[in-house]
Amino acid sequence: MTDIRTNWTRSEIDTIYNLPFLELVYRGASVHRQYHDAQEVQVCTLLSIKTGGCPEDCAYCPQAARYHTDVKVHKLLEVEEVLGKAQEAKQAGSTRFCMGAAWREVRNNRDFDKVLEMVKGVNGMGMEVCCTLGMLTEEQALKLQEAGLYAYNHNLDTSEEHYGEIISTRTYQDRLDTLNNVRKSGISVCSGGIIGMGESQHDRIGMLHTLATLPEHPESVPVNALVPVEGTPLEQQPKVPVWDMVRMIATARIIMPKAMVRLSAGRVRMTLEEQALCFMAGANSIFAGDKLLTTPNPDVVSDQEMFQILNLKPRAAFKEGEAPVHFEQIPSAQQ
């Protein structure tokens, strides 16, 4: 069994990342099988519960108020609407429901009270509940934990060295402080990043090194490929090669063996064969539905077909007594 380590060096991670491609995939697959069922992939749904108007300047994000994009701003959704969307997601095969709000940080106000009600409601459905709401204090994290929040997403985005090229409205340490507050509250940590933002290989390895040397590894590590959006500073960035995605996934799998490695944004631009390579290398989670917050995503029917072709099975929620949902049990949208 591969040891769980939090003392990785950059040099060690660099060596792994730069292994011959097929050797890297083989090692990632081997570690994956030690800790996970290689046929299981968790199906998650991500819903934007408050869209646009964000005061931050994240160069990749169409929800930043300062950029001119086609994103339509809307205030926080009502609790009933969100719970209805969660029920639809569960019926479509998702076992994890993520709620994202375009906030810089959580504020102790009526909107936060509504989010707590949403968390309680989704938790009551037997789904893993995740939120991504921006910066979070320890007190706020505890309130979310008491409401039943299972995971909190707060991505590092990139390396500390490259961070200033992407974001100026909050610091790298702000992100690490939020992760620490989440960890102290007892909520599981979801944190990864985005590749394709003009970063170097050194930056990619730096981001993985930061994640893998936290006191505890994140339980969930999303690997996103940039989806360039017109109107943002990164709109002209080229498509990320699948080989880079696979290297990131396999390296993350090897250095953080127990984590759920999530094949996240950018999947809409990948073929079935390219996604299969990612699963082979150690990815074991996807986001389902036609949209990830504001960017496009493969539709449910395409994912159903992919699961059938690759003989994958949806992973059950971590709640006790939650039965796994199988795609073949889900009515096709074409029927």
TrEMBL record:
Reaction catalysed? (4R,5S)-dethiobiotin + (sulfur carrier)-SH + 2 reduced [2Fe-2S]-[ferredoxin] + 2 S-adenosyl-L-methionine = (sulfur carrier)-H + biotin + 2 5'-deoxyadenosine + 2 L-methionine + 2 oxidized [2Fe-2S]-[ferredoxin]
Query: Which GO terms are recorded in the biological process aspect for this UniProt protein?
Result: biotin biosynthetic process
Q: List the keywords (alphabetical).
A: 2Fe-2S, 4Fe-4S, Biotin biosynthesis, Iron, Iron-sulfur, Metal-binding, S-adenosyl-L-methionine, Transferase
GO MF annotation, one: biotin synthase activity
Cofactor list: [4Fe-4S] cluster; [2Fe-2S] cluster
Q: What is its EC number?
A: 2.8.1.6
Q: Does the keyword Manganese apply?
A: no
Residue span, Radical SAM core domain: 39-267
Pathway connected to this protein: Cofactor biosynthesis; biotin biosynthesis; biotin from 7,8-diaminononanoate: step 2/2
The note on cofactor binding and number reads: Binds 1 [4Fe-4S] cluster. The cluster is coordinated with 3 cysteines and an exchangeable S-adenosyl-L-methionine. Binds 1 [2Fe-2S] cluster. The cluster is coordinated with 3 cysteines and 1 arginine.
Origin superkingdom: Bacteria
Which amino acid positions bind [2Fe-2S] cluster, per UniProt?
A: 98, 130, 190, 262
Listed CDD domains: Radical_SAM
Positions bound to [4Fe-4S] cluster: 54, 58, 61
Oligomer status and interactors? Homodimer.
Q: What does this protein do?
A: Catalyzes the conversion of dethiobiotin (DTB) to biotin by the insertion of a sulfur atom into dethiobiotin via a radical-based mechanism.
Designated name of the protein:
Biotin synthase
